[in-house]
From TrEMBL:
CDD domains: HTH_YyaN (cd01109). PANTHER family: HTH-TYPE TRANSCRIPTIONAL REGULATOR ADHR, REDOX-CYCLING DRUG-SENSING TRANSCRIPTIONAL ACTIVATOR SOXR. Pfam families: MerR_1 (PF13411). This is HTH merR-type domain-containing protein. Residues 3-72 form the HTH merR-type domain. GO terms for molecular function: DNA binding; DNA-binding transcription factor activity. Keywords: DNA-binding. InterPro entries: DNA-bd_dom_put_sf, MerR-type_HTH_dom, MerR_fam.
Amino acid sequence: MILMNIKDVSTKLDIPADTLRYWERVGVIPPVTRATSGYRDYQPADLDWCNFAKCMREAGVSIEALIEYIDLYQQGDSTTDTRKTLLEDQLATIQAKRDAVQATYDKLAYKIAHYGQHGLNPFAHKEEK
């Protein structure tokens, strides 16, 4: 099998090598497979974990929540319910953020669509009419 080192993974997944090392060091991803030389030899499962961590971080999931999830995962099937609850909590947090962004988007879209129609009050809302 072809060695996939940290530089290859960094390029392929668009994650800085320092970030990959940090994630492994603090437990955001499980320990990466090592070649006999001691270098990281990323396997498909390692790439899956890196992609998962990247996706979760981009969505705003905290490092602490990811570390907790990985720790629970490594404890085995006895933590399945706890892991599911953790993911459900993160989903609820992301949903709340999405709702807040949607409300801001709606307000800005309304302002742009009606720009210049509010006279001197740039904060006039459709509810005020």
